[in-house]
Amino acid sequence: MATRIKPSPNSSQKIQLQRASHVFLRHPDPEKFLIFAKDFGFIEEARNWGAIYLRGYGIDPYCYVVLPSITGEKQFEGGAFIVKSREDLEMAMKFAGAVRKDLSHLPGGGEMVSFSTPGGGKMHLVWGQEARTAPKKEPSAQVQHLGPYNLPFHKDRKGLSQK
Amino acid sequence: MVHKLGHYGFISSAFDEDLAFYLDNFNLTPSDVLFEPTMPELDVLAFLHIDLGSEFSDHHTLFMQRARPDQKTLMHHCSFEVADFDTQLIGHQWLADRGYTSVWGVGRHILGSQIFDYWKDPSGFKIEHYADGDIVNEKTPTSRQAAGPDTLSIWGPPLPVEFVEAS
Predict the structure, then answer these.
(1) pTM higher than 0.90 for the full model?
(2) Closest to A143 (Cβ–Cβ): which among B14, B87, B124?
């Protein structure tokens, strides 16, 4: 078995990912995790059938999905990626355990295909989801204005304070 | 506040098969590869980015680490972007004041350049705040080097043992 990674040029035969979108994690005590999640900087966006959807301030309607644990143990349930076209979703139906799901009841809507990887992990692809409108400027409760760093020899922030 | 999901990664007991699956079926390609220092033909960690052609994307969106023979497949951490260094330090102090468990940080990674800050959530998952990461495109060459503590951070606290283990 080859143990050195081979180059992997892109081709039209491959499923085209656009970006990472969200992760699914099972927690033994979702409510306890939610207190941490709020302190960490997530915003609760929606709840549906025991799942809690958390977002940041970016374009993804949610970027972290909190699921209750079934076994009492924590468990990672895979990451979800936005794909470029509906054809990319169709292509994923060939994978082991592929299941297609309608997401129209969730923020942003869309469709998702979930499947297993050879090592037993999970992966999810989403298409047709409507993106959020992200703010033009990074929001912050503390920072009013941050310009470039004033370095010893290069002071590019002239007449403006950093606070 | 966090901006978005930046990346996640896991330790795989089927590293070669899993990696082949992601590389053969998707527009994912390695930005950086690490090999076992005592076995230069054995790749043990791959940082993969989404290949968008000339368009730039994050240095890694997914990473995979080869499990030791005694390890099972387990997730390592997931990582969310914050605005900048100031926000990271404000966040670090906030989480510390609330009594949460810091895993590693604040520091700066070498591969991908992110300023990192890893925490343990109440369930025991590792989760990261990051800022100022590299972005790459089709012109960025894949680099390959020996794994070791020197490939992990340019500054920051010493690497704790629990960071290397799965979440």
Answers:
(1) yes
(2) B87
